[in-house]
Description:
Blueprint: H1 3-13, H2 17-31, H3 37-56, H4 64-77
Amino acid sequence: MGADVLDLFKQACELPAEERADLAGLLLESLETVPDPAVEETWAIEIKRRVAELDAGTVSTVPWATVKAKLLSRLRES
Length: 78
């Protein structure tokens, strides 16, 4: 990793969280190639299924802080 990249990273870390998230999304989008229609369709079906489950009340959400804590705990154990 070059010095320029590290400088950009340091500058980005000074941004508010919401702006860092926006920047991260833009950077990820810049890496994407032409979307595969089959993959896009599969994701659309999955999203509809998950929304339907939420609307029906058959599943419940888990706060990000809880998920993050569990993931970090698993990483420490391995």
